[in-house]
Amino acid sequence: MTRALVLTSSILGGNSQQLADHFIARAAERDGLDITHRDLVAEELPHLTLPELGSWQVAAEERSDEQRELAARSDALIEELLAHDVLVLAVPLYNLGIPSQMKAWFDRVMRAGVTFRYTENGPQGLVEGKRAVILAARGGQYAGTELDSQTPHLKGMLGLIGIRDVDVVYAEGLALGERQRDAAMGEARQAIDGLVETLA
Predict the structure, then answer these.
(1) Contact 117, 124 (CB under 8 A)
(2) Beta-bridge partners for 25
């Protein structure tokens, strides 16, 4: 059984959500694929604070009640990530970056000593044997240009924790007219269909 964790992060419930819904629907048709969906907008995480960050630095048996509660948030998200084989990120492009909701999730799963560690040769990812799929929906056309800071950012964060097998499905030019939108979304859905085939 292959387990996939799907994270959605659109505050508009728009195109990236549609791509995630398509992935989930196709995956449901396949034997051997189990899907967990976490909506980072509906289950919004607060911005990371110093007390929460500090709770991770305290040994579990020495934490105060407040520190245990704060650390439990990150612990649960990391446990969920580790329990899945594939991470699917449905990501709209907001001001050339990722939604703050998704950044708040990454802030809690990127923990030194837990999901990566520092070595003399640089950081080493500790989340091994995982695969990631990025479903990127954009109003303009940015892939392969200097303005696409989002893709390197996501790949960099995934790579830091050890996930380097990453596929990206782009749906771009979605604000450039109905014909362009329909064509781009259609191509993205076809690409998703092909990826689902490789997961089951």
Answers:
(1) yes
(2) none
Task: State the amino acid at position 124 in one-letter form.
Answer: Q
Tell me how far apart the alpha carbons of residues 20 and 189 are, in angstroms, rounded to a whole number: 10
Say how many C-beta atoms besides its own lie within 10 A of residue 16's C-beta. Answer: 26
86-92/2-8 β-pairing: parallel
**What would the pLDDT profile of 88-101 be if each residue is shown by its tens digit?**
999 999 999 999 99
Q: In what order do the strands lie in the sheet with 33-39?
A: 33-39, 2-8, 86-92, 131-137, 165-171
Phi, psi of 110 (to 5 degrees): -95, 85
pTM of the model: 0.95
Question: What is the spatial distance between Cα 200 and Cα 159, in angstroms, rounded to a whole number?
Answer: 24
pLDDT tens-digit map of 6-51: 999 999 989 999 999 999 999 999 988 999 999 999 998 999 999 9
Distance CA(32)–CA(189), nearest Å, equals: 21
Residue 200 pLDDT greater than 80, yes or no: no
Round to whole Å and give the CA distance between 78 and 169: 25
Gap between the Cα atoms of 1 and 13, Å rounded:
29
Instruction: List CB contacts of 5: < 8 A, sequence separation 6 or more.
Output: 36, 38, 80, 81, 84, 86, 87, 88
Q: What is the mean pLDDT of residues 106-121?
A: 97
Backbone angles phi, psi at 23, to 5 degrees: -60, -45
